[in-house]
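Question (not urgent): is this output format expected?
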Amino acid sequence: MPQPLRPFTSKLVPLLADNVDTDQIIPARYLKGTSKDGLGEGLFADWRYDGDGTPRAGFVLNRPEMTGRAVLLAGANFGSGSSREHAAWALQAFGIRAVLAPLFADIFRNNALKNGLLPVELPADAHAELAAAVEADPEAEVTVDLEAETVILPGGRAVGFSVDPFARQMLLDGTDELGYLLSQGALVAAYEEAHPARVDTTAPAWGG
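Got this back:
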C-alpha cells in the first residue's frame, strides 16, 4: 500500500528525452512476474546497462549523486506505448515519487495515479524554466505539494497543477481504489441493514 503523499522537497533526476515509452522505462523481459520486488533494478535497463550487465557510467541513473532523488524531470509524452503498470512500479521501486513533464501518455498517467506515483503536468514555460535551472545547477531542488497542487521551482516560483480529484484524495490518504472500497464497509453494511432485500436470493429457484 502506498504511503500518504505529503509535501516533499527533492533534487531532480533529469531525463529530458521526449516520447520515452514504457518499454524503455521497463523492458518487457521484466514483466514475467507480478511482484514489484527488484523492479528498480530494471528501470531503464536497456539504457542503464551494457549487454553483460555492467552499468553505463554516462547514464543519469547510474551517477552516484542521483541516489535518493525522488523527482524525475522528464520530456514530453512520457510513458507512451504499452499499458504496463510495471512502468509505474519500477519508478517507485527506484525511489521516484513524482514525475514532472509537459505531457504524459494517458494510460501511463492513470496507472501512475492508481499506484501511488504522482504525474505532474507542467506548463511549457515552467518546464523549460526548470530544465534550465537543473542544467545550471544539478543540485537544484523543487518542492512538490499535492494538497496545494503546486510545485515550487528552484527560483521560488509556485506553479499550479491539477490531478483527478478522486485520485488526488487516494494519494493524500495513502490508499488505492480497493483500499477505499474496503474502508466503506461499515457504511455499506448500514445501508444494507436499512434497505432489506426485495427478493430473497437464498430461496430455491421456481420449480426447484
